[in-house]
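Hi V.,

You were right to ask for the full record rather than a summary. Here it is.
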Amino acid sequence: MKAGHPVHTYLMEEELILSLLDELNTTDPHEEFQKFYNMFNHLASVERRFERKENQLFPFLEQKGWTGPSRNMWSFHDTIRDIFRIIRKNIDEKDLDSARQNIQYAGHNLKNLMEVEKSVLFPNAIDILTDEEWIKMREGEDEIGWMLSEAPAKYPAQNGYVHPSDDKVLRTDVIFDDSASHFDEGYMTIEQVNLLFRTLPLDLTYVDENDRVIFYNRGEERVFPRSAGIIGREVRFCHPPKSVDTVLKILEAFRKGEQNEASFWFNYREKLIYVRYFAVRDHQKNYRGVIEMSQDISETKKIEGERRLLEWE
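Predicted structure:
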C-alpha cells in the first residue's frame, strides 16, 4: 500500500492507537497525571479517524451498494465515543482509577473495531473502489484531519514540478550545519544570517520595546549611514531634531496598539527614498519594538510593462 493512500493512513493510525493504549496502561495517573492526560487527549483524537470513515469512506462504499459499514460500524464508533465521554468526566472529577479502568474498556473496543477493519472493511473497500475514487477520498481528508502529528503524503505521489505553496512534505534527508539555528521556517548559521542581511537591497534597523537600537544591517550601499556606535543608543538620538517628534509619535502609537505601520517617501540626494516603520509584536500581541526599513526606489518607480526574460547583455 503506497504512502498517502487512505488505507495506508488508517494502518499508520492503527499503530499509533496501539502504542498509545500500551503507554496509557503502563502510566499511573496518580503519579504522572499530565503525561496520562496528554496521551488520553491524543487517543481521543481517534474522532478524526471516525469522521473520515463516516464522511469519506462510507459514502463511497454506499455508492457501490455496500451499506453495511454505514449501518453497523458507525454504531461501534458511537459506543467508543460514549466511553470517551465517560473517561473525560472521570478525569474532570479526579476519579482517576475509574478513568484508567474505562480506558482499558475503550482499548478493548478499539482493538475489536480495528480487527474488523483489517479483516473485512479495508480488503473489501480496496476491491470495490477504483483508484480514482481513492484519490478523491484523499483530497477530501484534508478538511477533516488525522490522528497523526503530520499530514500524510498526497495520493498519488506528485511527480515532477510541485509549486512551493503546495509542497508540505517535511524533508528528513537534509543535513544542516551543526552551528545552524532553527528559525520559524528553516535553519541558518550566524554567518548565513549576516550574509542575508548584508545582501538585502535595503536598510533595516530594529528598535526594541525600550526604544533602544539593537540591530542594523550593514549592506554594501546604505541609504543612510550607520556605525557601530548606534547599537544600544536611544532611538530619539538617532534622528535629526526636525523628524524626532514624528518618530516618537509613531513609536507611541505602535506601543498603544493604535497603529501597526507608517510610510514616508521623499527625495534625498537625487534619490527617491521609501521609509516604512512596522510594529513588532510577539504571539501574544505584546509590543516588542519597531523595524525601520529604508530603500532607494528611484529605479523601481521607473518600471513599466513586464520583463520575463533574462537581460544581462
